[in-house]
């Protein structure tokens, strides 16, 4: 897709692109955009980086991102190389919902080995399905920014090893008493055969707002964070009491 000018692309608020087999680039370098919602599907020749670092600062209004079955995408958000100029310099501050489905080459949702990362503070929902090259969902550096995240759903990701990986940025100090995902209400981890842990670093989770937890067909996952395990045990006990003849298939297996 080629626009007549960058100005036309900058005025679009909702962008849906489906089945454009030969589309290789969407963003023509740095662009101040009004885009609020973006949906991509079946665009197999796109650049391996969906949002290059030089496009991220211009996406201040993006709220919803949905990407499905784009074979070439390896990185959703490339934060490497960004120059952070202060606390007001935020990456995608309006982003609320991200859905990534059937992206076979996706290795990073966020590629973020850049010091001083700020942003993503309004993300509420992250759904990742059938991304078989993805080993971790977040780095520690990125996860600690997601103070409003309410929903995490990860399913059918064959190589997923940990939800929060052990990558930290240069100079990043792991804060052991910092509560991660304080507003998390729903956690679903289904069919992740190589998932061994939720978090490699010594993270703290409160889980006071957690309403639903599913951990199904994760055979290598032996230990959940204690707050999540308590909720899972309570959920199974409540279900067994109300329906004694049916067992909740929501245990760590």
UniProtKB/TrEMBL annotation:
InterPro entries: At4g27190-like_LRR, LRR_dom_sf, Plant_NBS-LRR. The keyword Hydrolase does not apply. It comes from Camellia sinensis var. sinensis (China tea). It holds the Pfam family LRR_RPS2. The lineage of its organism: Eukaryota, Viridiplantae, Streptophyta, Embryophyta, Tracheophyta. Residues 13-158 form the Disease resistance protein At4g27190-like leucine-rich repeats domain. This is Disease resistance protein At4g27190-like leucine-rich repeats domain-containing protein. Keywords: Plant defense. Signal peptide: none annotated.
């Amino acid at each position: 897709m080629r626009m007549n000018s960058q100005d036309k692309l900058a005025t679009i608020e909702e962008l849906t692109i489906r089945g454009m087999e030969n589309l290789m680039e969407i963003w023509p370098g740095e662009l101040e955009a009004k885009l609020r919602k973006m949906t991509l599907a079946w665009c197999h020749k796109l650049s391996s980086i969906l949002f290059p670092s030089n496009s991220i600062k211009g996406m201040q209004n993006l709220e919803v991102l949905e990407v499905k079955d784009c074979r070439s995408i390896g990185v959703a958000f490339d934060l490497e190389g960004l120059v952070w100029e202060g606390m007001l310099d935020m990456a995608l501050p309006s982003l609320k919902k991200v859905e990534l489905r059937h992206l076979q080459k996706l290795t990073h949702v966020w590629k973020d080995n850049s010091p001083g990362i700020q942003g993503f503070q309004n993300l509420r929902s992250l759904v990742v399905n059938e991304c078989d090259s993805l080993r971790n969902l977040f780095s520690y550096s990125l996860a600690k920014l997601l103070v409003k995240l309410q929903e995490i759903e990860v399913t059918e990701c064959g190589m997923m090893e940990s939800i929060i990986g052990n990558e930290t940025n240069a100079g990043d100090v792991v804060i052991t008493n910092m509560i991660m995902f304080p507003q998390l209400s729903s956690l679903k981890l289904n069919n992740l055969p190589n998932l061994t842990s939720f978090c490699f670093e010594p993270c703290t989770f409160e889980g006071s707002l957690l309403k639903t937890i599913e951990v199904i067909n994760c055979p290598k996952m032996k230990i959940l964070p204690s707050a999540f395990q308590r909720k899972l045990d309570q959920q199974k006990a409540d279900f067994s009491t109300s329906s004694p003849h049916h067992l909740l298939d929501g245990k760590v297996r």
